[in-house]
Design brief:
Blueprint: E1 5-12, E2 15-22, H1 34-37
Antiparallel strand pairs: 1-2
Length: 59
């Protein structure tokens, strides 16, 4: 398994910033640390949380 980590430019209504980004090709959701978000954009509530499980959790 390898880790891909690159600095990407994030742009929001309140500014822009280069942040190191980790890639997960199997992800169904993207997240940003709250401290990084504060200078870029106002947080938006995502609504209902989802419980996601994988087959390996039952072992």
């Amino acid at each position: 398994m390898s880790i891909i980590k690159n600095p990407l430019l994030y742009v929001g209504s309140q500014g822009e910033k280069h942040l190191y980004t980790l890639y997960d090709s199997g992800a169904n959701l993207s997240c940003i640390h709250p401290e990084a978000l504060e200078s870029l954009e106002l947080p938006v509530y995502l609504g209902r949380t989802r419980l996601i499980v994988t087959a390996s959790e039952g072992h």
